[in-house]
Amino acid sequence: MARLLGFIHARGGSHDEALTHHRHAVELYRAAGDRCGEARALVGLGDLHYHAGRRAESAADFQRGLDLAQAVGDRWGEALAAVGLGFTAAPRHARRHLEHGLAHARATGDRWAESMALTGLGTVHHADGDPAEAANCLHQAVTLAQEVGDRWWERKATTALGRVCAAAGHHGEAVLLHERAVQLARDLADEAAEAEALAALAEMPVRHREIHA
Question: What is the pLDDT of residues 152-193, one digit of tens each?
């Protein structure tokens, strides 16, 4: 229950409460000797630290979660922890972690984790100067997020895809994607995400964009 409450508060923007519940969940699972539960709670804690900008703490949480998940044979937990490490690791290590997470997500049939892994890989390919593969990964990520009904992650992947399209000179497509991301953020009442999407939209050449008030 503590882990579930942490997730609810995290999506609702109550960061401090989410941290409290996830830390409590880690302690409870550890005291009970439930290493699978502890691993998954650590993944949630790592995600919270990541979004708070605490990269070192986040990476440590994900690594502990990965070690525990591997020790107990929890492939789903391993997938999530590896994906988390992919987002927090140095660029030279990110691809390895994300590909690890993607393989386990697909093996367990978890399309949500697969979407996250593909989003991370799309970002890595973009940074590596491979816009075609970046767009391929991110198109898949958006589709998967839509299929599982995760509008929060759909917004994140859509924004990333918009940036890739813009960098490749496909400004018309980029504008449509950023406008979609703005609408998703507004639907979710996520002001930080809306600001990010609007900033990305504002970067488009004036002739290609129309910022909606």
Answer: 999 999 999 999 999 999 999 999 999 999 999 999 998 989
CATH superfamily of 110-213: Tetratricopeptide repeat domain (1.25.40.10)
Confidence of residue 109 (pLDDT cuts 50, 70, 90): very high
Class of the CATH-defined domain 1-108? mainly alpha
What ranges do the domains of the chain cover? Answer: 1-108, 110-213
Q: What is the 3-state secondary structure (H, E, C) of 46-91?
A: HHHHHHCCCHHHHHHHHHHHHHHHHHHCCHHHHHHHHHHHHHHCCH
- The tally of CA atoms less than 13 A away on the side-chain side of residue 56 is 0
Rounded Cα distance between 179 and 198, Å, is 8
Contacts of 149 (CB under 8 A, 6+ apart): none
101 pLDDT more than 70: yes
Distance between CA atoms of residues 196 and 123, nearest Å:
16
Statement: residue 11 has pLDDT above 50: no
